[in-house]
Amino acid sequence: MTLVTKHSKLHYYSDGDIIIIVGKTTFLLHKTIIGLASKVFQDMFSYASASTNEIPEIMLDDESPIIFEELMSYIYPNTHVSINWNNVSEFLRIADKYIMESILMAAKAFLEREFRKNPLPALRMAEQHGFKELYKETSKLILEKFLEFKRSQTFNQLSVITRMSLTAKYDEYTKALSNLSKIDFTSGYLHCKECKSTSEHDKEISEKFESRVRQVQILPLPLPPTPPSITRKILFEAIGNNLCDKQFMDFQLPRKFKKQFGSFEPLECKKNKKDQDKKYYLFIELENN
């Protein structure tokens, strides 16, 4: 005896050949359409028990009828629902559970387009579903305003490993920033042949970088540290137009900067190629499980 109280308003088709009961809602669907979307459902059809009207029946007690109806609206060609921040997490969960590759890819594409608007949930979902590139790109935005994001309740929804990784990376950055005044930017620099006075040029470069270091080291504490991308931008501003200046900026400074702060990268998520964002960001990466 079925306990269903209502039919789905959108997905109860008179020519359907499979009944799926979700909670207290009945869906009369088509095996061909559902089977193409999900290998798991295709296999489940073989074990479906016949109902009183001889149509095979499957019960999904652990799913939400509202989310399932939205999922069917996404799959069926006669209805439409957009993936959004309200349903993307559940779409990903169901897509993983029932091996729905097209849903998984569509939800991933949504996150790649929209992660800037909601970095913390995007990072959580990227970790849960192994989206390595998205995880890396989203971490850049969070580390840029880490103290602000850390105060958010959503931050605690991240895994312990991710929270620890973000905190450790940001702590490394602030420590490197506080020690920046100790760096001799010209040590080991081989001037180009055209440089008339290497000692004078070293002095000139050092004075410029002493000024830049004071600019990025916001003192006295506890003012929030300069964001990573701003620190890099200030340090990498051109110091002059001659060949030796350019050589210093192209080779010496990147080497010194990486040794002090580690790797920085621009936002490179493939769905944002059109964005002319020239900033470089700190980041963490998703470890292999």
From TrEMBL:
This is BTB/POZ domain-containing protein. InterPro entries: BTB/POZ_dom, SKP1/BTB/POZ_sf. Coiled coil: none annotated. It comes from Gigaspora margarita. Residues 16-76 form the BTB domain. Pfam families: BTB. PROSITE patterns: BTB.
